[in-house]
Amino acid sequence: MDTDIILETRGLVKEFKGFVAVGGVDLKVKRGSIHALIGPNGAGKTTCFNLLTKFLEPTKGEIFFEGTDITKEKPAQVARRGMVRSFQISSTFPNMSVLENVRVALQPTLGTAYNFWRSSSSLNQLNGRCMELLNHVGLADFAGLKAAELPYGRKRALEIATTLAMEPKLLLLDEPTQGMGHEDVSMIVNLIQKVAQNRTVLMVEHNMAVVSRIAQTITVLQFGEVIAEGPYEDVSKNPQVLEAYMGSAEAELEGIDG
What letter would DSSP give residue 119? Predict the structure, then answer.
């Protein structure tokens, strides 16, 4: 297998009682790239993510991560290999501080993840690394604030910090800018570009302005199948893609958000 490819699927299929949600997807994600998975609602994007991270088992097909067949592995095994996912809905602990959220994510590095009887002060040795991660995502000044008190965009930044604590080789982002205003979108886009400097990012994203700005490769799904792949300049002019998004091959894809 090409060592430049960190993630590959071959003939990936997921059926639900006869309904084909993902139908024979062949995907190759290049190491060190930002790769976007896009498509209209119901195209199969989130199902693909669930298959890749093993929250769902494929009906057919194979999944390879760094050349190893992970098709039969469990979610925890995949995460330990370095494929880590953030979810569409923020999954931080709202009543814990920003620093404590990152510290929980770092706790397994101490080998004490399930030693709940230990004093919380035993985790203070992680505070330095916590602050490094918070500084990396622009949250150092918010370390003492409860996660629930953060603005929405910064909650997503905190979630990215907690995923970075797991030292991912491949970071999967599910709709990272969903529901955000323009200012928050710009912040998250800049953050994604920053964290992608030394790792690979695969993202599901509806905002075409975001995709056009940061993705080197775009894979377009419709009805669970790949209908186009390539750089934004090519994909945005593809008649099948225009038809899928706008119902007209003469439409313009530029700047569509939805």
Answer: -
Model pLDDT for residues 196-206, shown as the tens digit of each residue:
998 999 999 98
Integer Rg of the chain from CA: 19
The two three-digit tokens of residue 2, written as one number: 């090409």
Task: Classify domain 1-82+168-258 by CATH number.
Answer: 3.40.50.300
Ramachandran quadrant class, 67 (left: phi over 0; alpha: psi -120 to 50; beta: rest): left
Residue 119 pLDDT more than 70? no
Distance of CA 21 to the CA centre of its chain: 20
Ramachandran bin of 82, using left for φ above 0, alpha for ψ from -120 to 50, beta for the remaining angles = left
Partners of 220 in beta bridges: 38, 228
Binning pLDDT at 50, 70 and 90, where does residue 258 land?
Answer: very low
CA–CA distance, 199 with 32 (Å, rounded to integer): 5
8-state DSSP, 54: T
Give the residue with greater pLDDT, 14 vs 152: 14
The Cα 14–Cα 19 span in angstroms is 8
The reported pTM is: 0.86
List the one residue out of 160, 2, 140, 168 whose CA is nearest residue 78.
168
What's the CA gap between 46 and 40, in Å, rounded?
Answer: 11
Report the DSSP pairing between strands 34-38 and 68-69.
unpaired
Where, residue-wise, is CATH 3.40.50.300 in the chain? Answer: 1-82+168-258
Q: Compute the distance between CA of residue 116 and CA of residue 253 in angstroms, rounded to an integer.
A: 52
